[in-house]
Write a structure and sequence with these properties.
signal, transmembrane, membrane, mainly alpha, transmembrane helix, DUF4386 domain-containing protein
């Protein structure tokens, strides 16, 4: 008898909570299924981890393929920008400067979007597929054009150094890999952001180094680098002729 009394007392105590739970269930039943958001399951480990690794190996493969296909040799074709017509030097210096300004605005855009969305994953998640296609097209075209304009004269100016012949292709391969990583961030795993950061640093460093190197040759020829192919001759000429500021 006491057991029955205690059971009834427990049911009376739980009755309000039971009624509230039933109310919550009825609210869920009344929801329109179209308003519910289906959350995608997390990517399996072989995609979340293996995908970024595979993309990193793709970057290395592109560089290896370039090394095998076009082995290094000291080219007989070179240029010394100092001897080019004044209009060419002025125009090229202005074009390089404008590319540098565009690069700075691109970096500012990255900072703004990350601050606005909180992360690269959220930024690309809110981007439609059509916009990502246009985004990819614009950046591939922009990266290729900017690296061509700066990379070709830089590589020909320093044609005698094998390590300088890597700067142009490394930057361009990093830009390509970075663009591919955006698709991985959106459709596979946010782990692709690691590849995007590494490639972003690579193409930024190589691009800025070439930009500074060319502007130094065009605008400040009196500054002689240890890597200049005519360094010894120019230093000797400056010593023998104090009026010669550039050594040319």
């Amino acid at each position: 008898m006491k057991f029955i009394i205690w059971a009834l007392f427990a049911l009376l105590m739980l009755a309000p909570d039971w009624a509230a739970a039933q109310g919550d269930l009825s609210v869920l039943d009344a929801l329109d299924m179209d308003d519910l958001v289906e959350v995608e399951p997390p990517a399996p480990a072989w995609q979340a981890v293996g995908g970024p690794i595979a993309l990193g190996l793709f970057f290395i493969f592109v560089l290896w393929l370039g090394r095998v296909s076009v082995p290094f040799r000291v080219s007989k074709e070179s240029l010394t920008l100092f001897y080019y017509p004044t209009g060419v030097k002025r125009g090229l210096a202005l074009a390089i400067t404008l590319y540098g300004i565009a690069f700075a605005f691109g970096a500012a855009e990255i900072s703004y979007q990350l601050h606005l969305h909180g992360s690269a994953e959220a930024y690309f998640a809110n981007m439609s597929q059509g916009k990502l296609i246009a985004f990819t097209h614009a950046h591939l075209f922009g990266f290729t054009t900017s690296f061509l304009v700066i990379g070709i004269p830089f590589s020909m100016q320093f044609n005698h150094l094998w390590i300088y012949q890597w700067i142009f292709p490394i930057g361009l391969a990093a830009a390509l890999t970075d663009v591919i990583s955006w698709w991985g961030i959106k459709y596979v795993s946010p782990n692709f952001e690691v590849i995007s950061i590494i490639c972003g640093i690579l193409f930024s460093v190589t691009y800025l180094y070439m930009l500074i190197g060319l502007l130094r040759v065009l605008l400040f020829p009196q500054v002689i680098w240890a890597t200049d192919k005519d360094r010894d001759q120019r230093l000797s000429k400056k010593q023998s002729n104090p009026d010669s500021q550039t050594g040319y």
